[in-house]
Structures are given as C-alpha cells and as structure tokens.
C-alpha cells in the first residue's frame, strides 16, 4: 500500500490529542479493527513497545510495534515483529489559534504476504481518514464538547484546506 497522509485541524489541544494517541491500550474501545493492545515494555524516551492484534473479518494479525514520543508534538511508530515488510506511522501535532490542533498523520505500511496485501489494498481507501476521525470522536467522549472558538478555527481551517484541494485537483 502506498504511504497515505492526512492533515486535519481538530478543536482540541495538541496535548489532548497526543494523550489519546499514546494511550494505545484503549484503542480496542474506539479504533475500528483493533482487537487488543498491551504495552509490554517502557522505553527510556517515554515511549513503549506494544503487542497488538488487528482483526478484519475472519483475519487476525498479531504484531509488535515500538513507539517513540516527543510530547506533545510527535509520535512515531515502527514495526518490530509481525506481518510487515515495514510499518511507519508518524503523528505530528501543531497548536493553532484558540486551542485547536493541526494533525498530520502519515502511514506507510507494506505487508509481507500477497493475500494480506490484496486485503489491505481493499481496506485502505479511507482507512487513515477513519483513524483520525476515530481519535476526534474519542476526544469528544473523553474531553467533552470542544470550546466554540476552537471548533470554529478547526471548521474554518478544514474548509480552507478542502477549497485548496479542489483548486489543486
């Protein structure tokens, strides 16, 4: 699957979004296809190693990742063991006016088996966008409704980005 990148402005702070993304053990509660996640080792940089299970239909894949953090700006996830030739996920969080956060999420994954690659290409269409949406919904659940000014900034930023995408396309 080719690398995918999503940029979105959300009405929560970088610290809030960062805290949700590093809380990997709660992913099964709100991230589609995440069946299990368990931190198995803490790293000196504040990151961690995680054993995770994804389930898509009858398929189940277990893998181990290593996560490196730079609070509240950046989270980087790489594969350690599992069905990947490589896996690299990079989250960047940038403060924008009124307490909103601009998220840049890049996901680059290549699976080893042809069957899994075929499956991932079928599922990959908007999976990165759905992932960001899942975290935005989780933020609403954990932190409550966003501040109206942050919400207006996020809405205006995303409207401007959509307009720019239409002009570029």
UniProtKB/TrEMBL annotation:
<protein>
    <submittedName>
        <fullName>Putative oligoketide cyclase/dehydratase or lipid transport protein YfjG</fullName>
    </submittedName>
</protein>
<dbReference type="Pfam" id="PF03364">
    <property type="entry name" value="Polyketide_cyc"/>
</dbReference>
<dbReference type="InterPro" id="IPR044996">
    <property type="entry name" value="COQ10-like"/>
</dbReference>
<dbReference type="GO" id="GO:0048039">
    <property type="term" value="F:ubiquinone binding"/>
</dbReference>
<comment type="similarity">
    <text>Belongs to the ribosome association toxin RatA family.</text>
</comment>
<dbReference type="InterPro" id="IPR005031">
    <property type="entry name" value="COQ10_START"/>
</dbReference>
<dbReference type="InterPro" id="IPR023393">
    <property type="entry name" value="START-like_dom_sf"/>
</dbReference>
<dbReference type="GO" id="GO:0045333">
    <property type="term" value="P:cellular respiration"/>
</dbReference>
<feature type="domain" description="Coenzyme Q-binding protein COQ10 START">
    <location>
        <begin position="10"/>
        <end position="136"/>
    </location>
</feature>
């Amino acid at each position: 699957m080719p690398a995918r990148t999503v940029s979105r402005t959300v009405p929560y702070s970088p610290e809030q979004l960062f805290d949700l993304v590093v809380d990997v053990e709660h992913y099964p509660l709100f991230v589609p296809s995440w069946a299990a996640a368990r931190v198995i080792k803490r790293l000196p940089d504040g990151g961690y190693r995680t054993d995770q299970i994804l389930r898509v239909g009858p398929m189940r894949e277990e893998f181990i990742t290593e996560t490196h953090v730079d609070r509240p700006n950046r989270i980087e996830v790489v594969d350690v063991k599992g069905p990947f030739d490589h896996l690299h996920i990079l989250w960047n969080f940038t403060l924008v006016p009124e307490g909103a956060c601009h998220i840049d999420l890049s996901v680059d994954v290549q699976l080893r088996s042809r069957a899994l690659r075929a499956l991932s290409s079928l599922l990959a269409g908007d999976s990165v966008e759905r992932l960001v949406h899942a975290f935005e919904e989780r933020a609403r659940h954990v932190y409550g409704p966003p501040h109206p000014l942050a919400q207006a900034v996020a809405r205006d930023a995303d409207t401007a980005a959509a307009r720019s995408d239409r002009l570029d396309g």
